[in-house]
Structure formats: C-alpha cells, structure tokens
Design brief:
The chain has about 400 residues and is of the alpha+beta class. About 30% of the residues lie in helices and about 30% in strands. The chain folds into two domains: about 1-75 and about 105-175 and about 280-360, FAD/NAD(P)-binding domain (3-Layer(bba) Sandwich), CATH 3.50.50.60; about 175-280 and about 360-390, D-Amino Acid Oxidase, Chain A, domain 2, CATH 3.30.9.30. The protein is built from twelve helices and 20 strands. Strands 1, 2, 8, 9, 10, 11, 17 and 18 form an eight-stranded mixed beta sheet that branches. α1 (about 15-25) packs parallel to α9 and α9 (about 305-325) runs antiparallel to α10. The longest helix has 30 residues, at about 335-360. It binds flavin-adenine dinucleotide (FAD). Flavin-adenine dinucleotide (FAD) binds near residues 131, 294, 305 and 306.
Length: about 400
C-alpha cells in the first residue's frame, strides 16, 4: 500500500457535490485532491434544473457563464394535470433573477459536471480516477482516505460518494429508503423526439402531475436537445419484488393520462431505470476532520429539483467555514466542519422532508386531487411564497 503526498483536502467522489467542494476550496488557495472510483468524471443521466440558490454560487465561482452557455433559460415552470392535461398553474421564472439575484435555468448534467471539472483543473485540483475508497479514518492531526492500493492523508476528508454512500456508515447504519417510484428518462436531439416540440415547450419546464405518476419535459443545450422524465409508482414494488420498476410496467402505470403525456412516453429510454430512494435526515455529518456532503449527507427525492443545488450550497458553506476558521497557523478544521454541520444539517433535513411532501401532493387522487387542483388554479404566477424559503435562503 502506498501513502500519497499530504494535501490539505481529500474529497471522495467526483460527482457534482465532490467537484463543487473541490472548486470552492481550491479557489481559496488550498491543495485539493479528488478520488473518484470510476474511470471518467461522467454523469449518466439527463437534465438538471438549476435554481437561484445554486446559480448564485456558480456565479461567485466564475462558472455560471460556462454552465449557462450550455443551458436554457426557462421562462415558465408549469404544472399541468396528467389526466386532463389542463394547466393548473405556473411560476413566472423570468422574474427569478430580479427576485433572488440569480437565474433559474436548465442544463444537461454532463455539461455541469464538465464545467466544474474544467474549473477544478484550472484551479489546480488533482483529479484521480479509478480510486475506490473503502474507509476513512482520523489520525493524530490529520484524516486519511483508504483504498485497496493506497492511503491519502489530508487535513480534512470530505465524503461525497452519493446516495448509496458506503462511507456514511461511520455516521449511521441506515440504508437508502425506496419510495416505490421509478424514473425513466431521456435526453435526445430535439429533431429525434417523436412529438411536436412547440416554441412554448422550448422555453418551459412542464410537469404533468397525476395519481401515482408524473411526466416532466424541458429543453437542454440551447433547445438542441429535449429532456423527458416519466415517474410512476411501481406495482411490483408493492408486491415486494426485488426487481421492481421494470419497463413492462411503464405504459400501464400511465393508462388514462392525457394524450400529451402518452405521446411523451414514446421518447423515453426504456433500457435503464432510476429507482427513487432517499434517506431519513441525520444530524451528525462530522467526525473531527471527516465530513459528509451532497447526497451522501442528505439524499432527497427529486420533487423540488434540489439535490445537486443543495450539494453546491454545501460546498459554498464548507469554503466559508474554512475561511472563517483560518488564521496564520492554518485552518481549524474540526471547528470549521462543526460550523458547516450546524448551518447545513437542519436546513438540508427540511429540504429532504419537503421533497417527500411535494411528491405526495403531485401524486394524489380522487377528492384530494380536486382540492389540490383548485388551490393551484387559484394561485398567481408571481406568488413565490412557498419557495422563498428555499430559493431566497443563503444557507
Ligand atoms: C430523476 C432525477 C432528477 C433530478 N433532478 C435534479 C434537478 O433537477 N436539480 C437538482 O439540483 N438535482 C436533481 N437531482 C438530484 C441530483 O442528481 C443529485 O442530488 C446530485 O447528482 C448528487 O450529487 P453528489 O455529487 O452528491 O452524488 P453523485 O452524483 O452520486 O456522485 C457521487 C460520486 O462518488 C463516486 N463514488 C461512489 N463511491 C465511491 C468510492 N467508494 N470511492 C470513490 N468514489 C466513489 C461515484 O462514482 C460518483 O461519481 C435529480 C435526481 C434524479 C434521480
């Protein structure tokens, strides 16, 4: 086993959370090494909605322009009923920048990851691939990330290994909680999408919400690509089957939906599914010089479109706490990490819980659906009260 040269920070996991933390710390002059188990820094998947609580930070890091070049400014966030197709309400996204000081846009997740990786390299971050970290340990005055082949010492180690985090066991013996809902996605060149993509669809994020199902559509890459996500409550999950959420269930789960939704299903990738999991919030993310961040700390269901955004907020908070606990002799990492935990863990827990509630609200049936629709029909597009706490809150 080899021991690598000591760096100030080691980050385990090179997803959006890990690379954001690397960038935030490297731009404040620290030496940072990222350990990623895969051979490439790559995201399989499709689109991402980027809300102003995160784009404000991307702007501070100097990556907003690069990210937005590959993105699309959405003008409207529209909720429609999945059964009858009617518009229930929309949020006027064109006022987001004025209201929160940063834009709302949508982009391909690969484009965000490559913008972050490029910025990391420019900031001097050492990006190591094919390093599968199996454990982390505090030793006297340092922390160590341990793989089968080597040990990586640092002043602080951040665990950013995602929702399925193995290294989280240091803090909790919990497991990901299956929601029973599964997502099918696609991001295709717009001309290859089987439906007619109208001008309105190229400037909107549209969610069709209905009993046990929803479908989301939005443009990517300046409108050259089109993103579709279909999510449904899997019957095989409720029968207790291990292989739940299979493609054969997809069309049946959307039976009775309006024609726009049924047409949207035609452009999905059916050979890959994302079974939706989250975890219960936990409050301890820090052990001396080792800290959880991103989905490893607070995995959430996707209904608020905030998982990646919250990992960017974590990264910003970590860098701010490191700066606040820095003097001529260096950074007091144990207290910086406790500061980060005190600020971020209650807030992220609130987002996790809210995301579950939004999912429940989207998927109600019967009388509850009638009431929900009426409440949504009554709201005004410039009413941001329900989201101010999230988009406007700097923590
Ligand atoms: C359908 C869907 C839609 C979503 N939409 C949005 C959205 O619109 N907006 C939004 O903000 N969020 C969204 N999210 C959530 C978002 O994708 C995640 O929250 C975000 O990607 C988490 O980033 P992360 O870096 O914490 O984890 P991950 O992206 O999971 O990255 C973890 C990294 O760690 C690596 N790794 C794992 N184990 C090890 C190990 N032992 N050693 C070394 N490396 C390791 C992995 O290979 C991976 O690269 C969505 C999620 C889903 C499923």
């Amino acid at each position: 086993m080899t021991t690598s040269e000591h760096t100030t920070v080691v980050i385990v996991g090179g997803g959006i959370g890990g690379l954001s933390t690397a960038l935030a710390l490297a731009t404040s002059g620290l030496t940072v090494r990222v350990l990623e188990k895969e051979p490439e820094f790559e995201e399989v998947g499709a689109g991402l909605q980027m809300a102003p609580n995160a784009t404000r930070i991307l702007r501070e890091w100097g990556v907003l322009d690069r990210a937005m070049d590959a993105g699309v400014f959405a003008k409207r966030l529209v909720l429609r009923d999945a059964l009858d197709g009617r518009e229930l309400t929309h949020l006027d996204l064109s006022t987001v920048e004025q209201r929160y000081g940063a834009p709302y846009f949508v982009m391909h997740r690969h484009d965000l990851l490559s913008a972050l990786a490029t910025a990391c390299l420019e900031a001097g971050v050492e990006l190591n691939t094919e390093v599968d970290v199996v454990d982390t340990r505090n030793v006297k005055g340092a922390a160590v990330a341990i793989s089968e082949t080597g040990e990586y010492r640092a002043d602080a180690v951040f665990i950013a290994d995602g929702l399925g985090s193995k290294l989280r066991r240091r803090f909790s013996d919990d497991e990901p909680v299956p929601s029973g809902y599964v997502a099918y996605r696609s991001a295709l060149p717009t001309e290859e999408v089987e439906i007619e993509v109208t001008e309105d669809m190229l400037t909107s994020v549209v969610a069709y919400i209905g009993p046990g199902r929803h479908l989301v559509q939005y443009p990517l890459r300046r409108g050259e690509m089109f993103n579709t996500v279909a999510v449904f409550d899997s019957p095989s999950f409720h029968r207790g089957e291990a292989r739940w959420g299979i493609a054969e269930e997809l069309d049946g789960a959307f039976e009775g939906s309006c024609s726009m939704v049924l047409d949207g299903l035609t452009s999905l990738w059916r050979d890959r599914q994302w079974r939706m999991h989250d975890r219960e919030p936990i409050h301890t993310w820090v052990d001396e010089r080792i800290a959880l961040m991103g989905d490893a700390a607070h995995p959430m269901l996707q209904y608020l479109a905030q998982g990646a955004c919250q990992s960017i907020v974590d990264a910003d908070c970590i860098a701010q706490q490191a700066a606040a606990h820095r003097d001529q002799s260096g950074i007091d990492w144990p207290n910086a990490l406790l500061g980060y935990q005190a600020i971020r863990s209650p807030f992220a827990g609130r987002v996790q819980r809210n995301a579950r509630t939004w999912g429940d609200l989207w998927h109600v049936d019967g009388f509850a659906r009638t009431i929900r629709n009426q409440l949504l029909l009554d709201r005004s597009p410039d009413d941001f009260r329900h989201i101010d706490w999230l988009y406007g809150n700097p923590v």
